[in-house]
Structures are given as structure tokens and as C-alpha cells.
Design goal:
Pfam families: RVT_3 (PF13456). Residues 142-252 form the RNase H type-1 domain. By secondary structure, the chain is of the alpha/beta class. The protein has 2 domains: 16-119, no CATH class; 130-261, Ribonuclease H-like superfamily/Ribonuclease H (Nucleotidyltransferase, domain 5, 2-Layer Sandwich), CATH 3.30.420. 45% of the residues lie in helices and 16% in strands. A 5-stranded mixed beta sheet has the order 3-2-1-4-5. Helix 1 packs across helix 2, helix 2 (24-31) packs across helix 5 and helix 4 packs across helix 5. Mean pLDDT is 78; it is low at 113-135.
């Protein structure tokens, strides 16, 4: 970098620390990253020190990202800066954060695929009725509907049990969702959150998104939530077996779009 260069956004002196951590735009990007522990940067901190601290920058589940995310955030902040300078195109912090997470997840899956083959770990595929029969585990079906034009997602979760049948469900609309995979991840996170609120001891989370289930079915994943439940599993099912949650997600998204179109009194 030119030592006298100014930040194209805030016009302050542009340093590596400024581009990646101190610029208001960079701070907003970091705010959208679901870190296990919030990042705290002292005024006297330098980039080398933060590279060491980066080993603690682990994303919360269910992103499926096990490695520190610092390299991906720095890379996309740098790309976004250059695009702004050379092409005069700006981006929203939420978009940059989503690209960082998507790239980190893709890289993580590429690294773990060979490990999975060596250790002979195969993602579990259970039929619809198998999960509840083991210790009467409650099943949580999750799904998402994503609208590309608005980057909006409708998420849904549905709890059932072989003895109780259907007993709880819900939906949630989430904005600034960059991809169908991210929408599915957010739906699963909502399901986990609702299960914790209901204080359920044993839950089998079921999703028709094979990519997401593969990402979180790696050994030692999701340690933070294992202690919350007596038993927890993540299983892939076919779309036909997830029709109820799929219907709820699509209806929630459709209803939200219609509400935006209704005339105001």
C-alpha cells in the first residue's frame, strides 16, 4: 500500500489494520460474522498479533465452519476495496460477510472430504420414522424457502414425536440471505434455538439439504450444543419426507411478500 493513501470509504489513512479491522465498513462486516467469542481490538494492536488471535475466531453452529475465518474475511474485504476503487462498485457489509462464510464453508468441506473417506465416516441417512423410535427422540424437521430477487428467506421448523405426534411448529422471515444454503443453515439454527427454549432432552434434526448435513456431520462438530441435549443428531431426508416444513417455509415467505404489496390505510 501507498503509505499516504486514504481509505476510499472514510478517507482516513489506509493501513492494513484500517482496511481489515478499523474502517467502519470492516467493523460492520465483522458484526455480521457469527463468532463464538466477540472480537476485541485494542488501539495498539497490530496485524501480526491479530493473526495469532485469529485461531480463536471460530464461527458458531450451524455454519459448519471449523477453521478460523480471518483469512476469508480479509480476502473479501480486500477484493471489495479494489472493486470500489477500480470499478466504482460498492457492496453491503452483509453481502461481504455472507461471501466470506460461503467461501470458508466451501473450503472446509473440501478439506474434510478426504478426511471423511480415510476415517470411513459416512453421513447418516435415516428414514422418516427411525429417529423417534430410539429412546422416543423428538424429530425437528427444518426447511427454508429463498427468494433470489429480494435475498429474503422464509424458515420453518416442525417438532413431532411418535407418541405425541405433531406438537409445535413455527416460521421466521430473515432478510439479507445470500444463498439457499445460507437459508437452510439459518432454518436449522432456528430449530436448535426453539428446541432449547422447549427444553427438549433428545432431538433429531432432519433437513433435506444434503450439503448442510454433510458439513455439520463431521466428528467434533457442534461441541457447544452437545452439552445442552442428552442426545442430538443431524440427518438428511428426502424432500418428499420434509413436505410439511417445506410448505410452512414457502407459505411464510409468500404471506410476507403479499403483506408488503397490500396498500396502507
Amino acid at each position: 500500500m501507498n503509505s499516504t493513501a486514504l481509505c476510499p470509504r472514510c478517507k482516513k489513512v489506509e493501513t492494513a489494520m484500517h482496511v481489515f479491522f478499523q474502517c467502519p465498513f470492516a467493523k460492520e462486516v465483522w458484526r455480521f460474522i457469527p463468532l463464538k467469542s466477540p472480537i476485541r481490538i485494542e488501539e495498539e494492536a497490530d496485524f501480526k498479533t491479530l493473526m495469532v488471535k485469529a485461531r480463536e475466531m471460530i464461527c458458531l453452529p450451524p455454519t459448519g465452519i471449523r477453521a478460523p475465518v480471518l483469512p476469508w474475511i480479509c480476502w473479501y474485504l480486500w477484493l471489495t476495496r479494489n472493486i470500489l476503487i477500480f470499478e466504482d462498485k460498492s457492496a453491503q457489509p452483509s453481502e461481504v460477510a455472507t461471501k466470506c462464510l460461503s467461501a470458508a464453508l466451501e473450503w472446509n468441506q473440501a478439506q474434510t472430504s478426504d478426511f471423511s473417506k480415510e476415517s470411513k465416516v459416512v453421513p447418516v441417512r435415516l428414514p422418516l420414522r427411525q429417529a423417534p423410535r430410539q429412546n422416543h427422540t423428538i424429530c425437528c424437521f427444518v426447511d427454508a424457502a429463498w427468494e433470489a430477487s429480494s435475498k429474503r428467506a422464509g424458515t420453518a421448523w416442525r417438532f413431532t414425536n411418535e407418541q405425541l405426534g405433531f406438537f409445535s411448529s413455527g416460521t421466521c422471515i430473515i432478510d439479507n440471505v445470500s444463498s439457499p444454503l445460507m437459508a437452510e443453515s439459518l432454518a436449522l439454527r432456528k430449530g436448535i434455538t426453539e428446541a432449547m427454549k422447549l427444553e427438549l432432552p433428545s432431538v433429531a434434526f432432519l433437513s433435506d439439504c444434503a450439503t448442510l448435513i454433510r458439513a455439520i456431520s463431521i466428528p467434533n462438530q457442534l461441541k457447544e450444543i452437545y452439552g445442552v441435549f442428552d442426545s442430538i443428531t443431524f440427518n438428511h431426508i428426502s424432500r418428499s419426507q420434509n413436505s410439511d416444513a417445506d410448505f410452512l417455509a414457502k407459505q411464510a415467505l409468500k404471506a410476507h411478500v403479499l403483506s408488503l404489496c397490500l396498500p396502507m390505510d
